[in-house]
Description:
The protein is an alpha/beta fold.
Amino acid sequence: MEDFSGKSVLITGGGSGTGAHMARAFADSGATVKITGRRAEPLQAVANHSDRIRYQTGDASDEATVASFFEDGPFQIVVANAGIAESAPFKATTLDQWQRIMAVNATGVFLTMRDGLKQMDDWGRLIVVSSILGKHGAPYASAYAASKHATIGLVESVAHEVARSNVTINAICPGYIDTDMTQRTLENIMEKTGMDRTGALKAITKDNPQGKLITCDEVTHTAFYLASEGASTINGQAIMLCGGGF
């Protein structure tokens, strides 16, 4: 376990799933943590874990709101974790759906990383929680995959700009994570295909040779490493958590 005492961490999408898990872990490691999200109730539940966690509600795709997230900074570690997932055949994907996914998954990351970098001084870690679909495509996920590809391009480009500083930017690209969002995906597959839960789970883990969901703990440990002093030369990378499948 890394010791992040003296570090301040901002995590978007911190009310559930990987964001909540990271928030609790960073707080337990000694950091002060701020989490953001759209709904106060789940954020408050996470903040109840530690007096080192505080929260602010707001939309991570809104420029003024994201700027306000940093008003009580500076934050040395910034994690862009907020995201949404929707699926549809490409020919049935609506413009509204496309724009909604892009707003959160691409624009939200852009705003968080940009404003995070602006307030960093002599040391910083920018971390994007992307997806394996940021590295390859998949059927019925064109808008989602495109949004995640955008985040990888952002990370790779910004890495060149910060390379001569003590700031790094990297992405974590997990497969399906064992979270409530994935459980909803399983239920959607079961409803649309008639599969049972075992079949639906097999369908979403088929590209992982280990045949399992990724855990929040695995994502958090990767974030801890990227945020550590020992990862100072890891920059511009998209680290795959997929059991070796891609």
